[in-house]
DNA sequence: GCCAACGTTGGC
DNA sequence: GCCAACGTTGGC
């Protein structure tokens, strides 16, 4: 089983929203690297660290799991959608997503500050300079440390 | 609101 | 294929 971190702006979609919905298609990803990971590398049951970004206290706030095989992101074909992509061919969809499922909230958020301060988490992709990926792989050792901090 | 970093686009 | 311009991300 692999481990992932997925960012979401809590104003747009928070861990509480996922808890309420139970399950959610991870739509709107328009970055090829992130798409490739969902399309090629994620497996049902993989664990996801749910991270709040672009907010007051950026932090890992919960755990989710990959809940579907990859499939085309429907929002790319809907002209009324923010994430509409006129250049995506329905016969060869450009954007692929997976569903994610709520598992639990952390007992308390593990903040970006703590992650940066922890020596064992030095080489996490999350804190790498210039990293802008909204989906990234997480090593088990790093995941274990983070869950040890909650 | 600023700005660094980086991806994407499009002209040539 | 190069590269300047532009857009986006996301922490601060």
Short description:
With 150 residues, this protein is α+β, with helices and mostly antiparallel strands. The chain has four helices and eight strands.
What composes the largest sheet? 6 strands, mixed
Rounded mean pLDDT is: 93
Beta-strand residue percentage: 25-35%
The residue ranges in which pLDDT falls below 50 over 5 or more consecutive positions are: none
Which structural class best describes the helix and strand composition? alpha+beta
* Oligomeric state of this protein: single chain
Query: What is the CATH first-level class name?
Result: Alpha Beta
* Rg (CA only): 15 Å
Distance between the termini: 22 Å
3D architecture notes:
- This protein is of the alpha+beta class.
- It has one domain (3-149): Roll (ph1033 like fold).
- Helices cover 22% and strands 29% of the residues.
- The chain contains 4 helices and 8 strands.
- It has helices spanning 15-21, 32-41, 112-117, 140-149; strands at 3-8, 23-25, 47-52, 59-66, 71-72, 96-97, 99-111, 135-138.
- The strands form 2 sheets. A 6-stranded mixed beta sheet has the order 2-7-4-3-1-8. It has a two-stranded antiparallel sheet with strand order 5-6.
- A hairpin with a 6-residue loop joins strand 3 and strand 4 (59-66).
- The protein is globular.
- The two termini are 22 Å apart.
- The mean pLDDT is 93.
- It binds a DNA duplex (12 and 12 nucleotides) through loops.
């Amino acid at each position: 089983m692999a481990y992932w971190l997925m960012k979401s702006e809590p104003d747009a979609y928070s861990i509480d929203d996922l808890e309420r919905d139970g399950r959610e298609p991870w739509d709107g990803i328009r970055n090829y690297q992130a798409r490739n990971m969902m399309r090629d590398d994620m497996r049902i049951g993989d664990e996801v660290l749910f991270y709040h970004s672009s907010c007051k206290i950026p932090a890992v706030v919960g755990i989710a799991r990959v809940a579907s095989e990859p499939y085309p992101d429907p929002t790319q074909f809907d002209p009324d959608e923010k994430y509409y992509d006129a250049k995506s061919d329905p016969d060869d969809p450009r954007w692929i997503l997976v569903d994610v499922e709520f598992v639990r909230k952390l007992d308390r958020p593990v903040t970006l500050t703590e992650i940066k301060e922890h020596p064992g988490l030095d080489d996490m992709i999350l804190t790498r300079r210039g990293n802008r990926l909204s989906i990234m792989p997480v090593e088990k050792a790093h995941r274990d440390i983070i869950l040890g901090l909650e």
